[in-house]
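Batch 3, record 17
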Amino acid sequence: MSFFLNQLVIGIQLGSQYVMVALGLTLIFGILDISHFAHGHMYMIGAYLLYILMVLAGINYWIAFLICMAALAVAGTVVERTVYRPLRGQPHINTFIAAIGLILVLETLVRGIQPNALSVSKPIDRTLEFAGITMEAQRLIVIVGAIVLIILLQLFIKRTRLGTAIEAVAQDREGASLVGISVNRISALTFAIATALAAAAAVLMAPLAFISPEMGSVLILKAFVIVVIGGLGSMKGAIVGGYLLGIIEAMAIAYISSAYKDVFAFAVLIIILAIRPTGLFRGRD
Amino acid sequence: MAKYVKAIALFILLGLAAAIPWITSKYNVRILTLAMAWAIATLSLNLILGYTGQASLAHGALMGIGAYAFGILAQRVGLNFWLALPLACLITAFIGLLIGLPSLRTKGPYFAIVTLCFNVIVYKVFDNWKWLSGGIQGQVVPQPVFLQQRWARYYFVLGCLILTLIIMRFIVKSLLGVTFMSIRSNENLAEATGINSFRTKLLSFVVSCFFVGLAGSMLALENGQLDPTITMHLNSFYILIFLLIGGAATLSGPVIGAVGLYWLLDYMKKIGIKGIEEFRYLFFGLILIVVIIYMPRGLVGGARQFWDWAKSKYKGRKTQEVLE
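Prediction for the assembled complex:
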């Protein structure tokens, strides 16, 4: 039983990471209709920035956390401005292909500069024990951090003027621009928020895993799987789908085999699509 | 007039292609043979992406499946070359059918993602199932007696490429090609006119897989052996890049893109500046972004647009002269 509970905690922690990345993707898809395939690579850049700040500059983890989020928010707007804005109005598939170009650029750049896997130390290096569950403190930080960020994002979108403007653009881009909302500013803002979320996921996860140039590729596929499973553009779907996939994966690794750990997600995707092509929740088409 | 120019150009090009083994180095012949195999793969992606509008990112894996099917049938099963080759293509087409059935239910970028997921699964399978793939040591691919010579393989792959081009041209010009293009331009409208879009897309995908299987077999034949890296998703990206830079929805674009870029890729490797091997992906990424933003129809599509523009400009001037 305690083995099962331990795996459950690992699943929730994996899911927290997935939700943070998938929410960013969902935002960008739901509001701007862009399949930002390079989102996982922005996550990877966030992890490397954390390494630079913590190991090379010697900055405290929590301060580095905030700097990473801010820096990646800026990087997100740069990507939106240089790659996606010139492609607005073109077929979906063209933006997707530009994103593939972007991932080749980012991954090669990082691998060219630092090909080896790196690691950073944990801010709180302790093991917690509670009711038969043994876990590292960092796992709890990931879980709690993700919940806090998800709640903040929901509050921002539902309760602030800017958040309402974002929703307006998501529902009707032309109508929103007619009432004086600048679509360019909203899309820059959406990219900033989404990329900052990816950076937060990277900073939270980095002490638990290695930092490597490939870390973004597998994650982005899983994040897309979550977005499709949850229903395209549905925030609720991304949250439920993310935790679901994290738990399924942790259980599959524990009870089936770890050799195929990255394949379970795709198997789940194919099964769900075969049964329900629109995903679990109805999002935007 | 233009018809004759085209015929003469085609004739010269064919003559040049036929002369290549005798006028250039052995190394170049090998590179061009491989490049033509990639051109077949790019033409196959062109059918499903360029004409039917569905971006498959499983073509790298399917190319690998074709290569392994051919290698295993020819080596371990000991099948005759003329049986193993078409059978390998059919096996690839069948696997394509299995992949297409669930994935073609999704649309646009989500089809690309689902097929990319399939690609990762296929790679994992070939990487882990050593009894199937032979692991890192790989699978030996026998070369039949009449294809032992380098130039013989060159002509054989050239022949396959020309055959693929002819069949693709036939498909594209036929009613079936028009049906494919109607789905590309407006799927809902195509459905409204009574086209079963799912079945049509599936047909396009399966035919495309047949040819990518041929491309894989050609690669295996030229290399003489195989390892699981041939099924990696990076190869799907390569085929996509070749197609888009050359020009999707044209017949010359995929060939120009694949042969030109494959050669360039190899040349960059050959220059041998330390680290350039890694940085060429960066170069490709940048080209891809610039091309998709400024020349979404690729080199051939862009050139054609420029030609039409120049022609209309010229004609416009002529009518103006008459008016004056």
